[in-house]
């Protein structure tokens, strides 16, 4: 537990510092997290990160993180997206299916899941008032994770999904949801975000649930591959995928919910 707390304090401090700093420092942080997560994802599958199809997956992950559509030069990224997908499929042909379509498909799914998940994180940070919005989402997700862990340990009796994650309980999930919604209100006040109460709580609930679903998705991946942690980079936490699995679902969920519910009021 001491190792977990120390890693969380130091790593979380660096993460928040670079997030607040923004600009190139934040872009570098997101790129490092995304490529690190994809590296762990490839290793979990027992594949070589230096294999040609894996290298294409790294490239696709990076492109999707910073993917935008707008000016002509931005559309070159769309061209690259198509080219990487084409090359992945061509590898199956060139190797006469020694590298199978099934083996290639996990690369494509992982790159899209990780790359676009972090794309939304990067996009939220870079919109107007992006920093307080980003900190608001982080407050909801991290409070949810922390509360779910401690409430589950103290009061957990009914397993949430034992075949996927044998330690998670309904009590922990509900406790995390309630705490996340409370954190949403406190964070909105502290960060000076003008809000409408009902849409704020609805958005927070969706973000909290999305984060917990992201955790379950990663648990399902690890369970199917027979691994305990995605890596060992973060003592007490496992790997980058273990630490950021919630955020790559929570940020897309926040963007979609904010569009529909408009929880915040701008002058």
From TrEMBL:
Keywords on record: Cell membrane, Lipid biosynthesis, Lipid metabolism, Membrane, Nucleotidyltransferase, Phospholipid biosynthesis, Phospholipid metabolism, Transferase, Transmembrane, Transmembrane helix
Highest taxon listed in the record's lineage: Bacteria
Enzyme class, spelled out: transferase
Membrane topology per record: Multi-pass membrane protein
Main location: membrane
Family indicated by similarity: Belongs to the CDS family.
Protein name (Swiss-Prot/TrEMBL): Phosphatidate cytidylyltransferase
